[in-house]
Specification:
By secondary structure, this protein is of the alpha/beta class. The protein has a single domain (14-339), classed as Aldolase class I (TIM Barrel). It has helices at 19-28, 62-76, 95-110, 130-138, 152-158, 168-180, 201-212, 241-254, 315-318, 324-327, 330-334; strands at 33-38, 81-86, 116-122, 141-148, 186-193, 218-224, 279-282, 287-289, 303-305, 311-313. Helix 3 (95-110) links the parallel strand 2 (81-86) and strand 3. The relative contact order is 0.17. Bound molecules: iron/sulfur cluster. Iron/sulfur cluster binds next to loops.
Length: 340
């Protein structure tokens, strides 16, 4: 998926840290908090032109699903906060796995309150039909990140299905179905652009303004497409950083309401989840990682989950991910893989 980019910050004097950042550091070391990114499959029904994934690991096997549930059972009574983000590949290709684990968490929470739980998913949105969304939301998976690359003709050029056909119309239909529901959820529309497509993004913003501006469950974030290691990286035209900032400022102005922006009125995290000691990626084959982007970098395999629900960690491989807390470099904390 492209929905979870590496976070970037710039170096600065840590003595001037704001309280939000200090809280973020403290939260990163709090073992009563646990953040999991679970990849129930690494296959995908799309072949986005800029994707960095290889789609080589299929649906999580029953033994690994059992291990994930056992791990949650071991930890949940020690937790104040549990965050589970479903990621892939396209996670909804493994919907039974998600429902199985989400149902398990839902039941565990009932007997282990009060744990503050948030369930979310980065999905391409193609399989997020009304019934699926209703089931997930009832099980506590309430936040969805869905990417759109422009108006239909532009989007369909880059968010291509595995059979080569376009995907906009089905995603849009699913979004409208969600809007018509009275369910409680948040959809973050991640709007991608490149130097070649930026001028067309305004047409998509117009569509979004008309369809979703008055529904506070729908938010928007703008992201330039970047090179994340995919086979087409050499073909991707990149923005100069200032041109990218200018483009984003212009897109934001085009929104009907400032409140449509995901960042509106929120503290923006500065520490990447991959740097945090209490955050792990659980791969579809049971390996444990730190980063959802560097999936094919051996340094990102820091352990595995065992059948009885323990996590076996190689501390020599885990330690470098947390270097930023020693150096207090905001660059390292913002994207630890770049400093490994
Ligand atoms: S939806 Fe696109 S970017 Fe995400 S994993 Fe599938 S092919 Fe890659």
């Amino acid at each position: 998926m492209t929905g979870r980019p590496l976070q970037q910050t710039s170096d600065s004097d840590v003595s001037k840290l704001d309280p939000g950042f200090v809280g973020e550091i403290a939260g990163s070391f709090n073992d009563r908090r646990l953040q999991l990114f679970i990849l129930p499959t690494e296959k995908c029904n799309f072949r986005c032109t800029y994707c960095y994934e290889k789609f080589d690991i299929g649906r999580m096997k029953p033994a690994t699903v059992k291990a994930v549930k056992a791990f949650i059972d071991r930890r949940i009574h020690q937790l104040d906060v549990l965050s589970v983000e479903w990621f892939g590949g396209e996670p909804l290709l493994a919907k039974p796995v998600i429902i199985d684990v989400a149902q398990h968490i839902h039941s565990s929470l009932a007997s282990n309150s009060p744990v503050m739980y948030s369930g979310s998913m980065t999905t391409n949105g193609y399989l997020l039909d009304g019934d699926t969304a209703t089931t997930l939301i009832r099980l506590g998976v309430r936040s969805f990140q869905i990417s759109l690359d422009g108006p239909p003709d532009v989007h369909d050029e880059s968010r291509v299905r595995a059979d080569g056909s376009g995907s906009f119309s089905e995603i849009w239909r699913n979004l409208l179905t969600l809007r018509r529901s009275d369910l409680s959820f948040e959809v973050m529309l991640r709007l991608h652009f490149t130097p070649a497509t930026a001028a067309r993004l305004y047409s998509l913003i117009d569509l979004i303004n008309d369809a979703f501006a008055e529904d506070s469950r729908f938010k928007v974030v703008f992201k330039a497409v970047t090179r994340l290691g995919g086979e087409n990286d050499h073909k991707l035209e990149l923005f100069h950083p200032q041109a990218e900032r200018d483009a984003i400022a212009s897109f934001q102005q085009h929104l009907r309401h400032k409140s449509q922006l995901i960042t509106h009125g929120r503290y923006e995290p500065k520490i990447c989840y991959a740097a945090k000691p209490n955050s792990f990626v659980i791969r579809a084959d049971g390996r444990l990682g730190k980063c959802t982007v560097a999936l094919y970098d051996d340094r990102n395999t820091v352990g595995h989950i065992t059948e009885d629900g323990r996590i076996a960690i190689d501390n020599d491989k885990l330690r470098p991910w947390m270097n930023g807390f020693e150096t207090l470099s905001l660059k390292e904390l913002g994207c630890p893989v770049r400093a490994l």
